[in-house]
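Researcher: Re-running this chain for the archive, since the previous output was lost when a drive failed. Same request as before.
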Amino acid sequence: MKEQIARDLLSIKAVFFRPQEPFTWASGIKSPVYCDNRLILTAPEVRDRVEQDIADTVRREFPNAEVLMGTSTAGIAHAAIAGHILGLPMGYVRGSAKDHGRNNRIEGKLEPGQKVVVIEDLISTGGSVIDVVDAIREAGGEVLGIVSIFTYGMKKGLERLEAAHVRNVSLCDFDTMAQQAADCGYIAASDVQKLLAFRDNPSDESWISQ
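Model: Regenerated structure tokens:
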């Protein structure tokens, strides 16, 4: 599954590698990769495969799931489609509570004690998805785990997930993506080590000159 998803995302340029001319993140970190999984939604064949894999992963890894909760905004559509496949209710968690109406942070019905799987498109340092997990727990939901489309596997993200006592299962990871990018000719084989050096320590830019 990981190799197929990697090839799919590369083919629609949802994940784009540029090790020779790094992108700059909002934090100022230089990155050899740009990821925009929203493009999955406009590629029906890839979308069908991704959503089915999300549903299959929920069914296999979290068989007791009672509701899916998407992260706002990128995880919402994926949670909705996977929820439809599974016949499960879904909702989503806002980045912050609304400042009008009922001041909801969680949209959709969530009963105390319900078993929840969070659907996320991308995990890097893990901060935003952990915030969602915390919001669900504060509302009384039991978070069984996270299903994400792509994860960088950065140390900071892994440590945050462990500290929050939540398990993430990803359809594809950075290592697989880097290797598939090389195998399919998107990058040179010699660039793989640069990418993994970035993954290991994003704040250390020495990989750029390697």
